[in-house]
Amino acid sequence: MLNAIMKSVELGLLFALMALGVYITFRILDFPDLTVDGSFTTGGAIAAVMIAGGYSPWLATICAFLGGLVAGVCTGLLHTKGKINGLLSGILMMIALYSINLRIMGKKPNIAILNMDTIFTGANLLVVMIVVVVVVKLLLDLFLRTNLGLALRATGDNERMIRSFGANTGTTKIIGLSLSNGLVALSGAFIVQQSGFGDVTMGVGMIVVGLASVIIGEAIFGAKTVFRATLAVILGSVVYRIVIALALRVEWLDASDVKLITALIVIIALVVPAARRSAKQKSQAHKRTAELLSGTGPKGGVS
Predict the structure, then answer these.
(1) Which CATH number characterizes residue 185's domain?
(2) Partners of 112 in the beta sheet?
(3) How many domains does the chain have?
(4) CA dist., res. 181 & res. 170, Å (int)
(5) Residues annotated as region Disordered (predicted)?
(6) What's phi and psi for 112, nearest 5 deg?
(7) What is the pTM of this model?
């Protein structure tokens, strides 16, 4: 049991970078970016091909990050310059990336790097990922406090208002999408090195996993500040993996049910907070009505 939880924590940290990328588009930019399913594989494919070719795993990881940046820029250009709907832009790029990823992998469905040196060779995976995730989180926090980061956050909050101040919202969207997909690709590169192989379908469903991490993290840990929000996303990724591990220990569930479990987790995480807010609003409304009827409300009492 303890071993399963430790493995879940490791997986949670590996996917935490992807969750941070989804957080940028889903929460900060308010952009439904489905490029994630493709860019995750792009990062893994680049890392696998370069490591198999004898390149340094650190160089391969950096190149994977750059590949994700390019994918995000393409999605941003389709949306801002091509005037294509945001959701459709992501879908189109996701479809295009499937063929591109196959090309990167030499038209092979998978590439094995089991006997190759990786970032985790001779190192503790948990320690390495804690260091990497903390560094990335702090750098992201710093970026979101810069003028460009504030413009990025403002674009998601009120695009029309920030445009009236002279900000180029098209540029901020492209930057946000590129950074998001860069982090997603970086996560894909780490996953490939941890698992020992890259597969062309490894990114399927990653957007749902990322959303689950973001929603669970915010529901449990809150997101009142940038620092707390990014921390909540990371912890949400870890909690999500632990929940999946515990769910799979149920006798009548197996590995093929992971997608169903993920969907149910997201549904519960979305429905429960909404139901609580609705119940709270109804309770407050009933309380105000009772006060008015009893004469103790703001318009009641003796003049």
Answers:
(1) 1.10.3470
(2) 197
(3) 1
(4) 17
(5) 282-303
(6) -95, 140
(7) 0.88
